[in-house]
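Quick question: what would this complex look like in 3D?
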Amino acid sequence: MSSFHPDRDQLLVEHVLAALGNPVRLSIVRELASSPGERTCGSLPLEVTKATATHHWRVLREAGITRESRAGRAKAVSLRRADLDQRFPGLLDAVLAATPPAREP
Amino acid sequence: MSSFHPDRDQLLVEHVLAALGNPVRLSIVRELASSPGERTCGSLPLEVTKATATHHWRVLREAGITRESRAGRAKAVSLRRADLDQRFPGLLDAVLAATPPAREP
């Protein structure tokens, strides 16, 4: 059984923004962006429970940010960078370029 | 009493993304972007209850997307466009440029 992946033309910017607007999911996207290609989900350093991780993977996939496939018994995931760049030019680059806030003095 | 507004340097991209990742708030931001300057909150066409609108105004303000002030007995609101553009270059432009999804055939 394969999981739902929205078509590129059907991506909604508010879903993409909401999916990116979470520190765990944003860290996943940064990690995927830093090493193009597929990664197994277990290879990403996530400090959350398996159930929480599963929720975040689903939100990212259903928003159209990631693509999942089976890699043997593991789940592999990749960033849909080309789809996102074509559908929402500049958005992912701007998000990835965002810096942390300045430290309070 | 004045409401909390985060300093530009303290804005968090995940808060901004989460605030924008909602259709009502995104429509508010689009409306504010289309007519620079202050608007009274009541002048924006929102099809939600007053309590819901108040919630959305607060989320936008606390994320650093809008600035609120008093305009007599009304509340005035403006987009913090310069702050957002300086803190997260290209982000707001990419969001505002996003188009709706293609219609299903």
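Answer marked as accepted. Residues 8-97 of chain A form a domain with the Arc Repressor Mutant, subunit A fold (CATH 1.10.10.10).
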